[in-house]
Specification:
2 strands, alpha+beta, 3 helices, two-stranded antiparallel sheet, 27% helix, 77 residues
Length: 77
Amino acid sequence: MSYFQLTTPSFPYPELRFSNLPVHSFRTLLEDLGTICLNTVECTLESGKYVFDKITRPTELQQKALDLLDISSICTQ
């Protein structure tokens, strides 16, 4: 059985379904990427108070979009 026989014939772009990720419009993809956040973490230990920033881990779809755009989610300063 070929790949094209396994996809839904009513979907106009079967090659986009190969990854089993949801299909987005540009607008909905930007909304999805907009959920990546920069959180400030603050913790107090006996040795002192520590504050650092942490970016939320992207979902599989978000990471695929970032990879295609050649954008790293790791901040370097």
